[in-house]
Amino acid sequence: MKKVLLATLSVCLVVAISSFSVKQDNPDAIVGSWKNGEGTGIINIYKNGDKYQGKITWLKEPNDPKTGKPKTDINHPDEKNHARPVLGLVNMWGFKYSSSNEWTGGKIYDPKNGKTYSCKISMENNNSIKVRGYIGVSLIGRTDTWTRQ
What we know:
Elements: H1 2-23, E1 32-35, E2 41-48, E3 51-59, E4 90-99, E5 102-110, E6 115-125, E7 128-134, E8 141-148
Antiparallel strand pairs: 1-2, 1-8, 2-3, 3-4, 4-5, 5-6, 6-7, 7-8
Pfam family, one: DUF2147
Protein name: DUF2147 domain-containing protein
Region (Disordered): 61-81
């Protein structure tokens, strides 16, 4: 009986400590490198003034399979941007820390389809974030879980 009680208390302590580390009020907690849910890219999120933005710093397939040259932003609606490289592209911007480990008011650009979405980020724990892109209201959108690298 004592062993069961001790084991239960140990588990409760671990849960309390891990939830405390997520609950801390740290606006810079999202700063760092994050791999997207598909594992096809790494985005470095950093602070720019009083807002946060992200840049694509790694691609699983950095080169176009047809040409062998670095991938460019061929799906962007403005043809002037078709020659810009995807690697190094700032694809997230305008995020402000709101509270409770949530960053809102940002935009995210998807170079796969050339579309820009409203976006919010919430920290699940110190090593994973939920990135939600949406059109209009947050209820209509898609969430991707990213892991810290």
